[in-house]
Predict the 3D structure of the following.
Amino acid sequence: MDLLSALSVSASGLSAQRARTELLVENLANSDTTRTPEGGPYKRKDVVFASDPQSGEFSSLFESQMSAQGEGVRVAQVITDTQPPEKRYLPGHPDADADGYVAFPRVNPAEDMVDLLSASRSYQANVSAISAVKDMIQKSLDLFK
């Protein structure tokens, strides 16, 4: 794999982790939302990643010389939780049903915070990889001086 392909793979990882972070933050922000425009409580969302073959402008030139092509990552889909909402007895709440129960989203803030920390570390790992490739490119250019 050439250095530009390595940059492309890490850039796809950055993009995927950014999308994951956005959904985790949305889940945390709506952990107590009992009413949405669609009706009912907020439904937790997750991303599903899939491998994504990376090809750059120069890949056709190097294809015969390189044995492996870089595999990046992409967001394949965003899935919405289909579990029934959590019911809490709050008879004075404006969204309470006839029995006094309110439907709350099935969002676990502790789990989402751990996932957010994992996404942050994965993002930082991709930043470090890009920095290492940048340094390799700079040192290669310095050799030609």
